[in-house]
Fold this sequence. Notes:
The complex is a heterodimer.
Chain A: H1 5-14, H2 20-39, H3 47-54, H4 57-95, H5 102-105, H6 107-128, H7 132-159, H8 167-187, H9 192-198, H10 200-216, H11 225-228, H12 231-249, H13 253-277, H14 284-289, H15 299-326
Chain B: H1 4-10, H2 12-20, E1 25-26, H3 27-37, H4 46-58, E2 62-67, E3 75-80, H5 82-105
Antiparallel strand pairs in B: 1-3, 2-3
Amino acid sequence: MNEFEGYLQELQDSLxxxxxxxxxxxxxxxxxxxxxxxxxGRFATTPNKLRQELGSAEEMGRGITAVYTNRRWLKxxxxxxxxxxxxxxxxxxxxxxxxxxxxxxxxVTAYSILNLIIFAPVFYASLRLRSFEIGLxxxxxxxxxxxxxxxxxxxxxxxEVSGTDVNWQDWVExxxxxxxxxxxxxxxxxKALLLVFGTLPLTLGAVFQLYQLYETGFPSPLWxxxxxxxxxQILRLFMWCGVVLFYFLAQDRWMRWLGIGCSIxxxxxxxxxxxxxxxxxxxxxxxxxxxxxxxxxxxxxxVPVLITIWVWxxxxxxxxxxHEWRGTRRQPHAVIA
Amino acid sequence: xxxxxxxRKGSTRLLVLNVLAEEPKYGYQIMRELETQSEGYxxxxxxxLYPVLHKLxxxxxVTAEWQEPTGVRKRKYYAITRSGRAAITDYVxxxxxxxxKLFSTLNLPEEGQA
Lengths: 337, 114
């Protein structure tokens, strides 16, 4: 393999800009190709002949990079753009409090149908892209944000959101939203660490929700948008976007560890408040996350929580953009014999 | 100047899909199989083959999976999908039409009609 070291190095360099996992996979594939060629007795492949048959390393790298680079940004757009559009009513609601929003005011029907209109084509696009992760992501949203609210709207209205009898809906919704993450953790094992930490903020949110259901008998925030208003939506928006961006942008090792560090930070930050506040007042932190902190004497708690959760994904996103723009020169491939 | 390289390049997707039509194969095997089937007429470099394979995978015409059969080194095997088989039919139809129109435009008899 020594005579191919230069070739592999050149190929490695020309793959710059792709995720490190994909680079490793391509390098392993070409190395297997070279080993097969050297071991192939039928075609009497000499190293020189094999080198000629490989062609230009730069050409191969350019060709493969072109296949993946554009699609990565397309995936990010498919994930994020519809979600931002979807959240616009809530963003306007919090920015201009007195402007009425029809989508907001008729949550169960209008908003669910609006979701469905936006989600369905995005789901179709993700299937066309043959991206199971994105497909599952949007499928879970269709179930959680459109189908369940629409199907259960009559029951929901009948109960007038007054009791705890509707809790089963929250369970179904929580499971629907959680499924993609269980799937990802199971199937993308080499990214497990990244995903575990990347999804911890969501896990934390789910824990809070379950805590509410069991300990306080309080309906879930997702079914109480009317009262919980905007802050919970804004938080949710940034948390989801942060996780998505984290997953797609932090594919380089350097970015991944940075992302993991940020996630650990935010997770410990959240846990700290849970440990400190829950024994004193079971719902303090949950209330803060849901916007009720405004009415209580806890301004010093609310502000850092909000800033952390808002700033974190923005920092990750900016670093990701910077990383994509500048690119990185990676070290020579370690597998070269 | 020969236009053969361009013609070969234009037919690469069809040729690769056709080689995969029988059973899943890995990159080096595809190259050799193509060479054998065409009696050395169609040869391609790895620099041409692998981008095409990855593009076919991204387009959903083939699937790829790392396999390590007992006693054999780990390799990435490519298998044709249903869409890939449909694509072969489409590409063949396109090539047929292209050849027919080319020959009729040049006023030459098609193969088998001379």
